[in-house]
């Protein structure tokens, strides 16, 4: 068994996806959680000043989606061929685009401007993306891509969690395919690790 | 030979990387370039309202880096093992993070604010990233990752071009490893396709 360490803040965020994938594959790892007080000292030693970090037998890598793709191959959550991997990767980068659209709202401190940004997210951005995610889920046997469970479904589930926390509204609930997919993942993780 | 089409705006941007990789591999493709007047009509038919699109034997995919990673495997510009692919993917996502830091400057219309953002980019953001890219290039035999030429080097070269166009300054010039790597790629493409 390789010696695996995952370093992230003491929260879910972008680290949760990596923890989920390792747990899914029953891969033991050291779950290192950094308190904000200790972050400045660690930051200078990271490749580009960011967490999560993934360490395997002493080698270190950064970037959550790159790490997730790597682990997915170990735990049989990648595509069956390269075209499926392309579909999975495209959905993952689309989810990142969507997450980035939440940042102006997340960082806005003026309450009026914040509320206006929230309304645009709820009435335009969320429907735009989720209507398209629903189409993918319908076409792919209940999953986002490749007709089967893959790592991008886990990224979707963790992104839905972040979205609910950030907006204070469970926006995925209204979308049948998204909602079912998220439940399926929760049950699956609970069955294996609950 | 598969029937391959690449659809992008009539410019370099995120489409250029895909065109480069296909040319590197001597893969014929239809280079479809959309004028802005025709974009609204096409936009609604794309998976998530974005270009580039990559079409192979009638199947369509979006997201430039997902497409680049897929083509890289065909043209021998991927890593030799999965850890190398992780390193390559992490660098690609780091380059995207860096590109995103240019957006507030790019979209700012107030000249004074724009100049202030430019100074921060030149004095802080660019040195932060490029000092780290230089370390990678020194460690990896003149390339960004995997000790050899890979698709992330092409993404680096096209990103340097974008950076120079956006900032109006050839910022890579000052950095020896980056500058050499870029020249190497140019020569290589010219040798094969010039």
Could you give the topology of this structure?
2 copies of one chain form a homodimer.
Chain A: E1 4-9, H1 15-24, E2 30-34, H2 39-43, E3 53-56, E4 59-62, H3 64-74, H4 82-100, H5 103-107, H6 111-139, H7 151-167, H8 176-193
Parallel strand pairs in A: 1-2
Antiparallel strand pairs in A: 1-3, 3-4
Helix pairs in contact in A: 1-3, 1-7, 4-7, 6-8
Organism (chains A, B): Holotrichia oblita (Chafer beetle)
Protein name (chains A, B): Glutathione s-transferase
Describe the structure.
Chains A, B: This is Glutathione s-transferase. Two copies of one chain form a homodimer. With 194 residues, the first copy, chain A, is α+β, with helices and mostly antiparallel strands. Chain A has eight helices and four strands; from the N terminus they run E-H-E-H-E-E-H-H-H-H-H-H. In chain A, helix 1 runs antiparallel to helix 7. The longest helix of chain A has 29 residues, at 111-139. The A-B interface holds A 47-50, 56, 59, 61-63, 65-67, 69-70, 73, 82-83, 85-87, 89-90, 92-94, 97, 100, 128-129, 132 and B 47-50, 56, 59, 61-63, 65-67, 69-70, 73, 82-83, 85-87, 89-90, 92-94, 97, 100, 128-129, 132.
């Amino acid at each position: 068994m390789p010696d695996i360490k995952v370093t992230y803040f003491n929260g879910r965020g972008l680290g949760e996806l990596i923890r989920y994938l390792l747990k899914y594959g029953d891969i033991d790892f050291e779950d290192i959680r950094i308190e904000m007080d200790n972050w400045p000292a660690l930051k200078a030693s990271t490749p580009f000043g960011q967490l999560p970090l993934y360490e395997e037998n002493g080698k270190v890598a950064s970037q959550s989606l790159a790490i997730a793709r790597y682990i997915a191959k170990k735990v049989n959550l990648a595509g069956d061929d390269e075209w499926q991997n392309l579909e999975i990767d495209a959905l993952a980068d689309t989810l990142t685009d969507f997450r980035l659209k939440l940042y102006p709202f997340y960082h806005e401190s003026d309450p009026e401007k914040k509320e206006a940004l929230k309304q645009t997210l709820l009435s335009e951005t969320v429907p735009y993306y989720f209507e398209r995610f629903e189409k993918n889920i319908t076409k792919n046997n209940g999953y986002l891509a490749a007709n089967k469970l893959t790592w991008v479904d886990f990224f979707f589930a963790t992104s839905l969690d972040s979205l609910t926390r950030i907006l204070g509204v469970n926006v995925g609930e209204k979308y049948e395919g998204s909602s079912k997919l998220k439940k399926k993942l929760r049950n699956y993780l609970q069955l294996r690790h609950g």
